[in-house]
């Protein structure tokens, strides 16, 4: 339902009045400091020492999510020479780093235990599921993109090229496949088992076991075990995570826990937050409606203009065809007259030739008769 400017300002004034008179109670952050994730939730362990940068995971992700084909094929490894990030139509990328040795690292949504994107989303378009994935409901999204600002890993991307129905996109950990009892596409496609899927607690034990067994191969750090309150995507590395493009300045507090103090200290912000965001939501929807109306008007105008141009082209074509037809007729008439004139001239020449031939024949006949007469007379004289 559309919210008028008058109602929006009225609600805003009421909220301010309630705050100044003490009607609002002290607000506290929603973070639960003892939350360690859902028991039995799933995750993925990425052992960067095993990754060979084959991009099979990228290809599988593209296929599973039915994304557009990239400009360069997946067997073109020259793309690894650039440091890439996820995009609206690319949910995961593999990057190459050269520190002590060459290392390949897969990047995607880390599926935080307490996601910053979900904490920032006031319409609850993002949700952490008990199974592990952080999922997104496009039908709830209002396009504010606070999730993109909030994410410490800079993962969510926005479909800027879709004017009417843009969405925020990211890796889903193949949540639909998990519901069917299948592995995430990238995990299933990895030829070196650099990606392992399982329960998060079990994956941490596997990671710790590898570190203990091969202390010279791994640094003593399971990335994602505690960062930002913990993530469902975990990493092992043979060198510092900072050298392979991962942040080490995030701390161990989750996003909701980090914001709980400031929000409780400023109750007016908490009180006005729903009202302000409701206004933003209404403005966003109004903007979308206006954009659609403008697009419809533009399409209608384009149709009218196209019809007019088409009709004009048809008329021009008819005129051109008539001119060409008249010119063709005139040409044929002229040609016929010229041929008739030539025929008459030929007939005259033929008639003249016949007359001359007749005269010649008459002369020859007369000459022959004369010679015959002379011969007869000569014969008589001799007798």
Short description:
This is HmcB: HMC redox complex, transmembrane protein. The protein is mostly helical and 383 residues long.
Report what the structure shows.
By secondary structure, the chain is mainly alpha-helical. The chain has two domains: 35-253, 2-Layer Sandwich (Alpha-Beta Plaits); 268-337. 49% of the residues lie in helices and 10% in strands. The protein has nine helices and nine strands. It has a three-stranded mixed beta sheet with strand order 8-1-9. Strands 2-3 form a two-stranded antiparallel ribbon. The radius of gyration is 45 Å and the shape is elongated.
> Which CATH top level class of the largest domain fits?
Alpha Beta
Q: How does the major sheet shape up?
A: 3 strands, mixed
**H/E order of the elements?**
HEHEEHEEHEEHHEHEHH
Uncertain spans: 1-34, 263-271
Name some characteristics of this structure.
383 residues; mainly alpha; Alpha-Beta Plaits; two-stranded antiparallel ribbon; 9 helices; 49% helix; elongated; disordered N terminus
